[in-house]
Amino acid sequence: MHPHPSGSTDRVLPGTVRVEAQAHVTINLLDDRGVIQQVVREYETPVGIGSGFNVSPDGVVVTATGVVQSGKDVSIYAANRVFAEYFKVKIPADFSRHKLKNPDLNGRLQACYPPQRQNSNCIVTAVTKVTVFPYADPPVPEGYPADLVHTGTSPSAPAVLKLAKGGEDSTLPTVPLGTGLGSGIESTDVVGLPVRPSAKTPPKVETAHLDPPGGRTFKPAERSKLSTFLSNDGDGAAVVDDGKSEVIGLVTGGGGAPETLTPVEDIRAALVAANLTARRGPVDVVYETALASYHNKFYANAIPVLEQVLRLRPDHAVAQDHLRFARANRAKGPSTQANAPAARKPAFVLSPLVLTAIGVVAVGVLIAIAVPLTLRRRRQAGEDGAEGDRTPERMAAAATWPPLGTQAMDAGPPAEGSFPAQRRAPGSGTGPSPVAVVPGSAAGVAGGNGTQVVFCTQCGMRLGKAHRFCGFCGHAVDQ
Questions:
Q1: Nearest of 125, 157, 147 to residue 25 by alpha carbon
Q2: Which residues are within 8 A (CB) of 232 and not within 5 positions of it... i.e. 6 or more apart?
Q3: Which residues, 6 or more positions from 340, have their beta carbon under 8 angstroms from its beta carbon?
Q4: Other CB atoms closer than 10 Å to residue 146's CB: what's the count?
Q5: Burial (CB count <10 Å: 0-12, 13-18, 19+), residue 436
Q6: How far is 455 from 464, CA to CA, in rounded Å?
Q7: Are 55 and 246 in contact (CB under 8 A)?
């Protein structure tokens, strides 16, 4: 299977940009023939055109130094232009030094060329203007102005730009930047913008293979197509590792120069030198969530997430394209991810209804066993209690001490901290009984004939002699 998976560049396409650099040149020519005159002209001259990619949602763009910093001297270009216009001589508007047949004009022309000397008759200032065109729909016709923050020492070295406009809300799509150029990376894609992007002119993608794997050069058989790609304003294009869908470098070359990969380690070093950081944004997070469902053909799941991407970034061109496709093919794929092939289930699985029925039956059985046992225990305890009450001692105690709920209820409210209330024998005054009742045990008081009446602390009823359980409520007795 050829290792170029479908959709491996979808994470990179939204953050791809086109970079155009121009030099704004101002030249002041001094004509001292007769009356001294100053001739001021301003010119725009191309510096470089190429591709790049955004690595931060607020607009940090990486491209090749050769795209934004030309090896040609714009002062020479300005001198040729001003002499041709002012002195009406034929000089090409290029970056080469020329000579004129007229000795006087030729001397003045040579004195206008750089470098500046004491006898120079031209003063030149130049400012590089960089414009970034993102892949957006609708497109940005004028692009976004950018400041040149860092350049390298060679045309293939990374250059770092910062958008002066367009990244204020930090919603620009970015590319995932890799951590390093692994030794096993071979299959890649080169992603760039040879023209200003729009829905009709999306980024161009070329497959390529590193030779050797993890190296900085490409297979000889692919260099021809890469040279054509780079010659069409493709310098600075992103190189994508197909295995992880991450940018692992940028490519330069073409026009006779070898096609070379500048690794991601150099890009990260340039960002550090520029005091800037590569990071993903909220739009990227939502967009990649949608890609998971989209590429698995769960279009019904992908549609609302892609719609959320467009609420955050309405001109996200790739999300727009994927949303149109997902809506058109919603019926062809599974409706939800719940319809995806599930893991193998056990051979025997009890349904929730069966489990519920088993639980109900078990509770019923426990109740059927517990209720007769409880009633039997209480009945036996009651019989024992009744027999005990027939003894002379119990008969005397019953005559002098009523059970809880009769005269004892007239003794007043329960004392604080006791349960049930402390009890008082009739005729003993209003003072409390000296016996404190402790919950969970039996309590006794001396009767009028010297015997001790024992009662349950749970329900207050009399207890039979040596009973372990109350015959009325079944409460355990701790004698």
A1: 125
A2: 194
A3: 296, 298, 334
A4: 28
A5: exposed
A6: 8
A7: no
Collapsing DSSP states into helix, strand and coil, what is residue 358? helix
Pick the more confident residue, 63 or 388: 63
Cα distance between residue 240 and residue 246, in whole Å: 5
Residues 447 and 431 sit within 8 Å (Cβ to Cβ): no
CA distances from 346 to 339, 351, 352, 353, 357 (A): 18, 12, 15, 18, 21
Read off the pLDDT of each residue in 39-68 and give the average, rounded to a whole number.
Answer: 96
pTM exceeds cut of 0.85: no
The pair of three-digit structure tokens given for residue 129, joined into one six-digit string: 């203007």
Assigned token pair, 397: 């105690």
- 8 Å CB contact between 100 and 106: yes
What distance in Å separates the CA atoms of residue 223 and residue 22, rounded to the nearest whole number?
Answer: 29
pLDDT of residue 445: 45
Distance CA 185, CA 189 (A): 11
d(CA 294, CA 325): 9
Q: What's the length of the chain?
A: 479
The token pair that represents 327 in the structure block: 């809506």
Q: Give yes or no for a contact between 268 and 177, defined as CB atoms under 8 angstroms apart.
A: yes
Would you put residue 253 in left (φ > 0), alpha (ψ -120 to 50) or beta?
Answer: left
Looking at domain 13-273, its CATH architecture is Beta Barrel (2.40)
pLDDT score recorded for residue 277: 95
Instruction: Please state the φ and ψ torsions of residue 462, each to the nearest 5 degrees.
Output: -65, 145
From edge to edge, which strands make up the β-sheet containing 204-209?
204-209, 187-192, 237-241, 246-254, 257-263
Q: Is the pLDDT of residue 426 over 50?
A: no
